[in-house]
Amino acid sequence: MNNATIEVRKGLAGVVVDFTAISKVNPETNSLLYRGYPVQELAAQCSFEEVAYLLWNDELPTQEQLAAFAEQERAGRALDPVVRRVMDALPITTHPMDVCRTAASVMGAQHPLAEDSSREANMVKTADLFAAMPAVVAYEQRRRRGQDLVEPRSDLGYSANFLWMSFGEEAAPEVVEAFDVSMILYAEHSFNASTFTGRVITSTLSDLHSAVTGAIGALKGPLHGGANEAVMHTFDEIGIRSEESLDEAAARAKAWMEDALSEKKKVMGFGHRVYKQGDSRVPTMKAALDKMIAHYGRPELLGLYNGLQSAMDEAKGIKPNLDYPAGPTYHLMGFDTEMFTPLFVASRITGWAAHIMEQLGSNSLIRPLSSYSGVEERHLR
Ligand code: COA
């Protein structure tokens, strides 16, 4: 083969690398199915715990299965003392994604089933990570503010407890609901960069925690999960002014977008490798954002949201992705901007684990080829 005849697909764009039965992303119809169910229906009718169970077990749980799963999750919520010590040893300036990545690695290093990659062991490790990651994220949110750990409450569901551990007070039911919706929407999205990273690591027959640790590293980048943080930085750069009307905020956002695009900037929260006509998850997340804007009485955020979106649409026809409504939603709930991608981690652990187990079920080492473009062969004298 010579280089001229080889077609290289940069970024693996358009390359189908394997089969998956976990989720189906259909850009033609802007739809997303988890194990066959439209994600919008799951977000409207199911809890995040039910969706996690579905992703790992192919089917939604019965009442008894859900009760057993919830009991297991509630029993694993406390922050592990070793993880806490490691977190406390990290500088306060450490990015929370690096904290999450480190915590996942520590959890793996001391897991009693660390070297066991049987399906049974991986289900245990997955459930442990799922239950424990909210404590890591919540404690990191508090540590950044000089606040102490809040112990979990076993009388609350996953999302209510997550918010409780983060802020030390019970969140309103509509806030819990919006948070749960965000967790469901972030849970799974086929062969995205972090999931593929997890599958590559798994394909070497490395362990589940190594795959999750690597996936967290991939998710951190602003072209992937880090975009939800970047959206909030954009809002901050434009300036959030509480006294402003919706139209005034929209006009300033529009002007900002026009400048950014004239400088050929990539504006985070817009565009998608697969969806080109709009992200299937956005309408559901936008509805949750609208409820939060109403709940917290912050219409100026909607002005910025609308202004950026319409200016991007008019100029380039590029639609928002899930990170666009998720960023301001988490901001309204009270999270620091740097905590947004760790929230995504807590959710996406579900999808990563499903893919890790699927990869192991029919494994083949992932090792693509490259086309050499360096100097011709030469020799030392
Ligand atoms: N802002 C401005 N222009 C954008 C854009 C954005 N967010 N996303 C895509 N474009 C433009 C590109 O500049 C390019 O224009 P050109 O043809 O004039 O060069 C065109 O649209 C195609 O973009 P490309 O980067 O090739 O698409 P892709 O499929 O490789 O990239 C993303 C997809 C997600 C990496 C890209 O849209 C992006 O960087 N978005 C911002 C990051 C983000 O929100 N990520 C979260 C994804 S869920």
Characterise this structure.
There is one protein chain. The chain is mainly alpha-helical and 381 residues long. It has helices at residues 39-45, 48-57, 63-75, 81-89, 96-109, 119-144, 158-167, 173-186, 193-203, 208-219, 227-238, 246-262, 282-296, 299-316, 323-333, 340-361, and strands at residues 23-26, 31-34, 37-38. A hairpin with a 2-residue loop joins β2 and β3. α8 (173-186) packs antiparallel against α13 (282-296) and α10 crosses α16. 44% of the residues are buried. The model has no long low-confidence stretch (mean pLDDT 96). Coenzyme A (COA) is lined by residues 223, 227, 266-273, 316, 318, 321, 323.
Quick overview of this protein structure:
The protein has 16 helices and three strands. The protein has 381 residues and is an all-alpha fold.
Spell out the blueprint of helices and strands:
Layout: E1 23-26, E2 31-34, E3 37-38, H1 39-45, H2 48-57, H3 63-75, H4 81-89, H5 96-109, H6 119-144, H7 158-167, H8 173-186, H9 193-203, H10 208-219, H11 227-238, H12 246-262, H13 282-296, H14 299-316, H15 323-333, H16 340-361
Antiparallel strand pairs: 1-2, 2-3
Bound molecules: coenzyme A (COA).
Coenzyme A is lined by residues 223, 227, 266-273, 316, 318, 321, 323.
Mean pLDDT: 96
How far is the N terminus from the C terminus? Answer: 29 Å
Tell me the strand percentage band. under 5%
H/E series: EEEHHHHHHHHHHHHHHHH
**SS-based class:** mainly alpha
Major beta-sheet overview: 3 strands, antiparallel
Q: Supply the number of helical segments.
A: 16
- Give the CA-based shape: globular
Helix coverage percent of residues? Answer: 55-70%
Radius of gyration: 21 Å
Number of strands: 3
Strand order of the largest sheet: 1-2-3
Q: Identify the bound ligands.
A: coenzyme A
This entry's quaternary arrangement is single chain
List unreliable stretches of 5+ residues. none
